[in-house]
Design goal:
It comes from Streptomyces zingiberis. The chain is α+β, with helices and mostly antiparallel strands and 168 residues long. Helices cover 19% and strands 35% of the residues. The protein has a single domain (2-160), classed as Protein Transport Mog1p, Chain A (3-Layer(aba) Sandwich), CATH 3.40.1000. It has helices at residues 34-37, 86-93, 141-160; strands spanning 2-6, 10-11, 23-24, 26-27, 30-31, 47-52, 61-67, 70-80, 101-103, 106-109, 112-118, 128-134. It has an 8-stranded antiparallel β-sheet, sandwiched between helices. Strands 2-3 form a two-stranded antiparallel sheet. Strand 6 and strand 7 (61-67) form a beta hairpin.
Length: 168
């Protein structure tokens, strides 16, 4: 288990006076635009990130951004079979699949989003990879959904570069 500790890459801009921490410019070492992380941040003293090579529910990878010990953003990644779709990822993550919006290779719902992409060369015979983002941040469901979509669209290409298919 790797612990990033106090967020190493921080951006001084975008800080809220009710926050004692800076807005992260990465999630477990994967670069993101700080403005895309901002909607999921809450008031607090300390931001910490924790990266695990084997995440919850058997996932291959997880990254959690915590504010004062409470999860703010959680990302899971896992290798998948060639026929695994974004609908399959949503079915695993959401009980009420009728609340899921699927657009291309991305699914979004009130507190989460999923992307599935081709990524040959993975372990377990996986040729696709899924990334699921979850956030417990309360608020307007449409705002959360749009903000998560923007965050995931920015995160996934940079995260993909860390995978065996990153050059393809």
């Amino acid at each position: 288990m790797l612990i990033t500790g106090l967020v190493a890459g921080l951006s001084a801009c975008g800080n809220d006076p009710k926050r004692s921490y800076a807005t992260p410019d990465n999630l477990c070492g994967v670069r993101v635009n700080p403005s895309l992380v901002e909607p999921f941040l809450v008031n607090g003293e300390e931001a910490r990130q924790r990266e695990k090579p084997h995440g919850q529910g058997g996932a291959e990878y997880s990254c959690t951004l915590r504010i004062d010990g409470r999860a703010s953003i959680v990302l899971y990644g896992d290798w998948r079979a060639a026929n695994f779709t974004v609908r399959d990822a949503a079915d695993e993550a959401v009980q009420n699949v009728s609340a899921v919006n699927i657009n291309g290779n991305m699914a979004t719902w009130a507190d989460g989003a999923a992307v599935v992409f081709e990524c040959p060369g993975g372990p377990k015979g996986g040729s696709r990879y899924s990334v699921v983002a979850r956030t417990p941040v309360p608020g307007d469901q449409n705002v959360n959904r749009e903000a998560l979509e923007d965050l995931v669209e920015s995160y996934v290409p940079n995260y993909r570069k860390t995978l065996p298919c990153g050059d393809s």
